[in-house]
Structures are given as structure tokens and as C-alpha cells.
Specification:
By secondary structure, the chain is of the alpha+beta class. The chain is built from 6 helices and 16 strands. A 7-stranded mixed beta sheet has the order 1-7-8-9-10-14-11, with helices on one face. Strand 8 and strand 9 form a beta hairpin. The N and C termini lie far apart (about 85 Å).
Length: about 350
């Protein structure tokens, strides 16, 4: 009996020691990507007329969900069961389908979020390189790494693993320079859940001597109470306001992880009270001179995101979290959700047609 007890005690000590070593590894290897980091602008084509005022342009934004979220996929951090894409082939199929849907909208500018460049969860497919190969017509490209996570050994049977991902910006028009800005995140253990966050800043010179400044963002979702996304918005707003005050045109697009319609539960008929990440943005948070643009068709409302706690179906929580922000010298002509029925991602792409005044 004493021998059995001693063996069990040794096993317990070994398990606790292994757990302590793993926790130490996660904290010691955690780091944030540098703030104010200049980004490389890949130029595969320079044969285009410069952008200018008075013309109508289209910006498409699409969170492609690291190539995992087919319409029957559920994610463990949303209450579902899966932690990785189902196969390398599934990654190529989902990313390829998402890019095809975005291309069909004929964008002048394309923002992608959750683009893996090397990830356990996406079978180490470089989704940015693959997307570039599918978008020859958008010859100016910028990639901003959002995070580089340590190996997350959860769920135990199929760990989420180590992943590098970020935001990709594509343009028909010349991008003169680009920058990565680090967003505020939560401290302590929660930083390991939400990882790093950033937005990219891409500058498009105009014929009138000013600049169109494009912001590609993906705000926090997995936080303790959702307020950190408000701090992130304040930083983004301040940056955009400064550009507007300088006479430039500021446009942001991406995943707010906030209910930008303000009443998605009412519109789409499924309560979202349990989802702290999908709260409305307080109107007083938006400074004068900037406007949040929510893509919406009142006659035929389509959500931009589904909660992935289960395969897509009538009981899914639906919300519009993807949209845009524009400065006061930009006129919005139209903004809509493109209905893909969540075939290739837990998001639908959204677009905005705009004119620089």
C-alpha cells in the first residue's frame, strides 16, 4: 500500500513539475512585436494611375479566420470543439474561397485579418504568400504581424499550438510607406489568451499632394470584460484624428469585435447578452470628425459574423462586427455585407464605396 502511495505521489510531483515548467515556458517566451515598426511594402506592380479626389473607390475587409472556419466548423475558444483547421487541404480551400469572394467585389483596396504565416492550427501554410498569388491585380502589399504565440498546449488532445498571424493590406495604388502600431492589451494571464494586437498604417500618395492613410485593424475579442477594445479604439481614433487635422484622408477597416450596429440581437433575432466581446460602442467614444460606418442593408440585413460555438445554423448568434471608420473629408457612397453564408470563414466580407472630397 505504501509503495502504491509513493508511486502516486511521485507521479503527482512530476505532473506538477511539468505543469510549472510549461507555465514558465509560456511566460518566458511571450513577447510583443515592436511598436512603430516600419513595414515592408511589396511592389509587384507600379503601373497604375495615382489615386485622387473625386473618384469612387472600393475597400473590402475580410477576417478569413486563419483558413479554418468552414460553415460547419466550431472553435473551442468560442464554446465549440475544434482547435485547428481540419487539414492542410481545408486551409487552402477556405483561404482560396475567401479570396475569390473578395475578388468578385472588385476592390481597389483589400484588408484581410487573421492571416497565418506559420501556424500549428493552419498546418504551417503561409496564407499571406498564398493570398498574394491569387491577387496579381492588387500589386501593392503590406503584412503586419499581429502576434507570435508560444505553443499553447490546449485542448490536450489537439493543442492549438504555436502560431504567427497578422493583417494583410492590398492596393491597386502606390503605397509609399507602412507602419505597425501596437495596441494596448490586458495584463497578466489574459495577455496569453488574447495575445498581441496591432493595426497597420499604409500611406497612399494622392495627385493633390495629400495622402490617403489606410488603417487595417483587428481589435481584441478574448478579454475579461470587453473594455480593452475601447482603449484600443481611443488610440486608433487619436491617430486618425491627427491625420485628418493635417489635411490627409483617414480610412480604417477591419474587425471591431464590437456590435457596430448597436442592436444586432434585435435585428438578427438571437440574444448576445453572454458575449462580452460583442457589445455596442459608446457613441461618446467617437471623436468629432470621425464616423463609424456599419455595412447594412435595412431591406435585407446580413450579419458580418457568427459565433462559432456550433456549426452555422438558425441558432447561431449573429452580429455585425466588421466595418469602417472614415474622416470627415471622405464621403461614403455605400457599405454592405457580402453574403457568403459563412462558407469559408466565421465572417462575411464587407465593402465600402467612398469618394475623397
Amino acid at each position: 500500500m505504501k509503495t502504491i502511495f509513493r508511486i502516486l505521489l511521485i507521479l503527482l510531483v512530476l505532473v506538477l513539475l511539468a505543469l510549472a515548467c510549461y507555465v514558465g515556458y509560456v511566460f518566458l517566451t511571450y513577447y510583443r512585436v515592436e511598436d512603430n515598426l516600419p513595414l515592408e511594402v511589396e511592389k509587384t506592380s507600379t503601373e497604375s494611375d495615382p489615386a485622387d479626389v473625386g473618384e469612387t473607390y472600393r475597400l473590402v475587409s475580410y477576417n478569413i479566420g486563419f483558413g479554418a472556419y468552414s460553415d460547419d466548423y466550431s472553435f473551442f475558444m468560442d464554446g465549440g470543439t475544434e482547435s485547428r483547421a481540419r487539414s492542410k487541404e481545408a486551409v487552402y480551400e477556405n483561404v482560396g474561397g475567401a479570396i475569390a469572394a473578395a475578388k468578385e467585389a472588385e476592390p481597389d483596396f483589400l484588408f484581410l485579418q487573421e492571416v497565418d504565416i506559420d501556424g500549428t492550427r493552419s498546418y504551417h501554410v503561409d496564407e499571406y504568400v498564398y493570398a498574394c498569388s491569387l491577387l496579381p491585380e492588387l500589386g501593392q502589399r503590406v503584412f503586419a504581424q499581429n502576434y507570435d504565440s508560444p505553443y499553447l498546449f490546449w485542448p490536450l488532445l489537439e493543442p492549438h499550438g504555436a502560431n504567427q498571424a497578422g493583417q494583410a493590406t492590398f492596393s491597386r495604388y502606390d503605397i509609399s510607406s507602412a507602419l505597425r502600431r501596437s495596441l494596448p492589451i490586458e495584463d497578466g494571464f489574459m495577455k496569453l489568451v488574447d495575445l498581441d494586437r496591432c493595426y497597420s498604417v499604409s500611406r497612399v500618395p494622392l495627385e493633390n499632394g495629400r495622402e490617403l492613410v489606410l488603417y487595417n485593424f483587428h481589435l481584441s475579442a478574448y478579454t475579461s470584460d470587453g473594455t480593452i477594445a475601447e482603449e484600443q479604439l481611443k488610440m486608433l481614433f487619436a491617430d486618425m484624428s491627427a491625420e485628418y487635422a493635417a489635411g490627409n484622408y483617414a480610412i480604417a477597416g477591419g474587425d471591431f469585435n464590437k456590435d457596430i450596429l448597436g442592436n444586432s440581437s434585435e435585428i438578427f433575432g438571437v440574444s448576445g447578452e453572454a458575449y462580452t466581446w460583442a457589445q455596442p460602442i459608446p457613441p461618446e467614444l467617437v471623436p468629432e470628425g470621425l464616423t463609424i460606418v456599419a455595412p447594412f442593408d435595412e431591406a435585407d440585413p446580413v450579419a458580418s459574423c457568427r459565433n462559432a460555438d456550433r456549426p452555422y445554423g438558425p441558432d447561431n448568434y449573429l452580429v455585425t462586427v466588421d466595418g469602417f471608420i472614415v474622416s470627415g473629408n471622405v464621403t461614403v457612397v455605400d457599405a454592405q455585407v457580402i453574403d457568403t453564408a459563412f462558407r469559408w470563414s466565421d465572417h462575411n466580407p464587407v465593402y465600402m464605396d467612398f469618394v475623397l472630397n
